[in-house]
Amino acid sequence: MTDCKILHYTDSIHYELEQTARLMRILTLQLFTKLGITISLDEYCALDTISINRQICQRDLAKLILKDRANTTRILNELEKKEYITRIIDTKNNRLVKKLEITQKGIDELNSISIKIKSYIDNVTKKIAPEEVEKVQMILKHFRLDLEKVVEMNI
Amino acid sequence: MTDCKILHYTDSIHYELEQTARLMRILTLQLFTKLGITISLDEYCALDTISINRQICQRDLAKLILKDRANTTRILNELEKKEYITRIIDTKNNRLVKKLEITQKGIDELNSISIKIKSYIDNVTKKIAPEEVEKVQMILKHFRLDLEKVVEMNI
DNA sequence: ATAATATTGTTGTAAATGCAACACATTTTT
DNA sequence: AAAAATGTGTTGCATTTACAACAATATTAT
User: Fold this and answer.
1) Domain around A139
2) Can you point out the beta strands (E) in B29-139?
3) How far is B55 from chain A (nearest CA, A)?
4) A76 is near strand C: CB distance < 7 Å
5) Residue A142 lies in a domain
6) What is the CATH number of the domain that holds A53?
7) A:B CB pairs within 8 Å
8) In this structure, is residue B145 part of a structural domain?
9) Residue B24 Cα distances to A17, B30, B36, angstroms
């Protein structure tokens, strides 16, 4: 009786979002292995974020990529080992921080990957009208800003 | 020069989707602990899916919740231990399968959680027009169906 | 001035996840 | 009829992840 009145979680936008994102991630991971890309998807995201936010410190990067500090450290260790970034000891508000800088080798790798995956990435949204894609992206960003206010991120 | 022509991955809908979904998941996980809900979010999703797809077998469930068989097994072990589901040995196309059935205790728990989290879940989309939420959900489903055709799921 | 708190990054550890291998039965191929 | 392939579920292991504790320094409170 009461059964039909209750909204199923699997009908909610939360679940729909998670499932779609999950599938997209799986697809991108498969693409990375298929194209023989040697850095992980998370490393690629971090590298891309660093390329846009020059001189960002580790903690701020962690906030952007939504990983905790520990895992951000590990991702950056990998990127540094591969010589795609350098860590520069500096200060921010009188505190010692490690600012991140992408190397030329990192820029080249980033561009190389972006070009490689472009057509595959575009292909996914091919069947959906561009204005709809943009609209979804806009609403998602709106969502995200609201979410950021509510979620307690202790990073 | 070529730098500005390349679309950054972090500007793509892939990344926007993943980040938004990630935040939503973090929020829901925090909600679960705050409300003292004793099953995991994944267990809850599985239970909800079983309640909608009665007599589903493990492999078909795995396809729906987008987990591999191994992890589906583990999630179901937990749910069975907590007496929220039972596994019924049966056949499907002459093959032995374990069909899943939700127990009364499972239904009660499911409803209890759904009621508990409802207001919080609604709250997230409060500031966005309902028709926009519906539109996003519709387009996401469209996305997802396209994705399912492309992604190789070896479950 | 001393103690408490906060910021930044690292390390340790337990849990979650993905992937491969296995077991077992059934279907299909040769 | 024998062999190969397929479908179903489980176990094992290596990787990823989240969370907590730590180290070092700077700020704030008492």
Assistant:
1) 38-150
2) 85-92, 95-102
3) 17
4) yes
5) yes
6) 1.10.10.10
7) 178
8) yes
9) 9, 10, 18
DSSP state of A152: -
Q: Residue B64 contacts by C-beta under 8 Å, 6 or more apart in sequence?
A: B49, B53, B56
Contacts of B13 in chain A (CB under 8 A): 125, 133, 136-137, 140
A3/B107 touch (CB, cutoff 8 Å), yes or no: yes
Residue B107 domain flag: yes
Other C-beta atoms within 10 Å of B56: how many?
Answer: 18
Q: Which nucleotide's C1' is closest to B25 (Cα)?
A: D18
Q: What is the domain count for chain A?
A: 1
Mark the nucleotides of strand C covered by protein, meaning any atom under 7 Å from a CB: 7-13, 16-21, 25-27
B11-49 pLDDT, tens per residue? 999 999 999 999 999 999 999 999 999 999 999 999 999
Q: Which of A48, A107, A127 is facing B9, going by the closest CB pair?
A: A48
Query: Do the domain assignments include residue B87?
Result: yes
Q: Is the pTM of this model over 0.85?
A: yes
- CA dist A48 and A43 (Å) reads 9
Which is it for the CA torsion A57, A59, A63, A69, positive or negative? Answer: positive
Residue B59, number of CB atoms within 10 A of its CB: 13
Residue A42, pLDDT > 60, answer: yes
- Cβ count near A64 (within 10 Å): 18
Query: Which pair of structure tokens corresponds to residue B88?
Result: 């019924």
Per residue in B36-87, pLDDT tens? 999 999 999 999 999 999 999 999 999 999 999 999 999 999 999 999 999 9
Q: How many CB atoms lie within 10 A of CB A70?
A: 9
